Amino acid sequence: MDFFERSSSWNYGAMKNFHRISEPVKRHVRQVYWTVAMALIVSAVGVYAHMLLNIGGLLTTFGFLGCSFALMNTSSSYAAQGKRWNWLMAAAFCEGASLGNFVGAVIEFDPSILVTAFVATVAVFASFSGAALLAKRREFMFLGGILASATSSMLTLHVLSSFFGGAALMFEVELYGGLLLVVGYVIFDTQLIIERAERGDMDHIKHALDLFVDFVGIFVRVLYILVSVHTRFHWT
């Protein structure tokens, strides 16, 4: 009974926190998630295009970076919305094509792993982004400094491992530690989007790019982990 009472209390408190978000910001958040969903669909098309035409590689990686840079440096005025939307979809397509080799290898190995990874990614992303939406404003903003420091530390360790060995161990650290980092960024970015929207920044395309990158980051790491676990289990 105590468990159910505490659960009801938390749910009620969470709903009150959600109601603190203004209606324009709620509409903005819905628009952001819809845009992320469209970018993921286009990214899946990019994966399929690579599997048909073998277009993914270094060129599409630079294509993603270039399109993202162009999006962020294009005016967010209403007149430029169409152009910025095209930049976002082009970036998503290039990102999908860049992942085509890895996704294709996983499909040949065991297609069920791909489905499991996508479902798990959706669950993780929705859970932590939803938690950030239901939390108090700015409650998780402190994560920004921690995540930046952790990212910098991982980059330093990666460089050191390339000189002093331990690449295999560093790969495991980057895989699992990187997953925790990206989950943290989902929480932080969601609250940052809300805070910016409350201050009048309704740039749903830029905000969608942030969450799209977070989603792909989770998906890639979950996919690697599932393949690794499946391989170890198979050989055992």
From TrEMBL:
<protein>
    <recommendedName>
        <fullName>Bax inhibitor 1</fullName>
    </recommendedName>
</protein>
<feature type="transmembrane region" description="Helical">
    <location>
        <begin position="113"/>
        <end position="135"/>
    </location>
</feature>
<feature type="transmembrane region" description="Helical">
    <location>
        <begin position="32"/>
        <end position="49"/>
    </location>
</feature>
<dbReference type="Pfam" id="PF01027">
    <property type="entry name" value="Bax1-I"/>
</dbReference>
<keyword id="KW-0472">Membrane</keyword>
<comment type="similarity">
    <text>Belongs to the BI1 family.</text>
</comment>
<feature type="transmembrane region" description="Helical">
    <location>
        <begin position="208"/>
        <end position="227"/>
    </location>
</feature>
<feature type="transmembrane region" description="Helical">
    <location>
        <begin position="55"/>
        <end position="73"/>
    </location>
</feature>
<keyword id="KW-1133">Transmembrane helix</keyword>
<keyword id="KW-0812">Transmembrane</keyword>
<feature type="transmembrane region" description="Helical">
    <location>
        <begin position="85"/>
        <end position="107"/>
    </location>
</feature>
<dbReference type="GO" id="GO:0005262">
    <property type="term" value="F:calcium channel activity"/>
</dbReference>
<feature type="transmembrane region" description="Helical">
    <location>
        <begin position="142"/>
        <end position="161"/>
    </location>
</feature>
<dbReference type="InterPro" id="IPR006214">
    <property type="entry name" value="Bax_inhibitor_1-related"/>
</dbReference>
<dbReference type="GO" id="GO:0016020">
    <property type="term" value="C:membrane"/>
</dbReference>
<feature type="transmembrane region" description="Helical">
    <location>
        <begin position="167"/>
        <end position="188"/>
    </location>
</feature>
